[in-house]
Design a protein that fits this description.
globular, BirA Bifunctional Protein, domain 2, seven-stranded mixed β-sheet, 2 domains, SH3 type barrels, five-stranded antiparallel β-sheet, alpha+beta, about 250 residues, binds biotin
């Protein structure tokens, strides 16, 4: 891609017209020992996957669908940071287009409160060692309408006034912005991506609910701490820090 100016990310680029899921293909390549930073992209996915076992439906040929293979030498406990690095990179790329993205902790990117991008990160690891991580990114770009069930919660760049964006260029820009954030993280400095996540935090000061050990809880979202955890302030004033997981807006 003429727009890519990274050293590692996307230098080995595998593009397919149709795949089951770019994450599945990327995991296969990772197991076979593909280079770090290998990127798989596809026009169309027949069984694109989302978080919590949901499906990611690819609509026409309107989305960036890419998966990145990474082998960070950090403890598996730090893997959630990878997803936040992805969200921060996407948000920066979208900001440079002139839209106003927000990051819904831990990893959805929203515009006008609607989801424009989702990330599915999968990891193969042992207790103290990551074999590889595959970070799958889906960005709704030139999608002009959504199925009824999701139209109130989903948006695309086309619907937000960015008509006919070049998807390859956007994908390259995300990788260009990701590389320095990822390198800093590997060197022990998470501030570059965390400062983006804090500045663009969508949940901050909102009432949220979530479940912990099957128990439904609600509180108000606070800041994102230096480990990327979301602070929650409960009605009695006590605080807790969420590591990852699903958070809903509104109380129970
Ligand atoms: C979510 O918000 O639930 C995550 C959606 C992730 C979708 C992307 S599209 C590219 C990659 N391949 C997949 O099968 N899923 C991710």
């Amino acid at each position: 891609s003429p727009w890519l100016n990274t050293v590692e990310l996307g230098r080995n680029l595998v593009h397919r017209h149709t795949v089951d899921s770019t994450n599945i293909l990327a995991k296969g390549l990772a197991r076979e020992g593909c280079p770090d930073g290998t990127v798989v992209t596809a026009e169309h996915q027949t069984s694109g996957r989302g978080r919590s076992g949901r499906r990611w439906t690819s609509i026409q040929e309107g989305a960036v669908q890419m998966s990145i293979v990474l082998r960070p030498h950090v403890s598996p406990a730090k893997a959630p940071s990878i997803t936040q690095i992805g969200a921060a990179s996407i948000a920066l790329a979208l900001e440079s287009l002139g839209v106003s993205p927000r990051i819904k902790w831990p990893n959805d990117v929203l515009i006008s409160g609607k989801k424009v991008c989702g990330i599915l990160t999968e990891m193969s690891c042992e207790l103290d060692h990551i074999h590889f991580i595959v970070m799958g990114i889906g960005i709704n770009v030139n999608v002009r309408s959504f199925p009824e069930e999701i139209s109130s919660v989903a948006t695309s760049l086309a619907l937000e006034g960015q008509d006919n964006l070049n998807r390859a260029r956007l994908a390259a820009d995300v990788l260009n912005r990701m590389e320095p954030l990822y390198r800093s993280f590997l060197q022990g400095d998470s501030e570059p991506f965390l400062s983006v996540c804090r500045r663009l935090s969508w949940l901050r000061d909102k009432s949220i609910s979530f479940s912990r050990n099957g128990e439904p809880l609600s509180g108000v979202a606070g800041d994102i701490d230096d480990q990327g955890r979301l602070e929650v302030i409960f009605p009695d004033g006590t605080r807790d820090y969420l590591l990852s997981g699903e958070v809903h807006i509104g109380s129970i």
